Amino acid sequence: MFRLARFIVSTFILALVIWFAVTVPIGKHTLWGHLRRIASTPEAKDLATGAKQVAKDAVERAQREVQDDNAGSASRPTQPQPER
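Above: the chain's sequence. Below: its structure in token form.
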């Protein structure tokens, strides 16, 4: 019962935030309008491009480490476990 009430309250608050962001003007534009304008600046686009490149580098590094670890463990002989 508590989970259902929490879900309903959370959904209501989310709907309220979305309504506020889309309809209530803050200066000349709504919050949504301000965020769209900020995201379309060259600086924001440059930031997004840089973040994507860093993420790609991190994924490639992680894949290399996993492949190196798998290659290293495949070449090592397995030790039999002592019986108890």
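Helices lie at 2-23, 31-39, 42-75.
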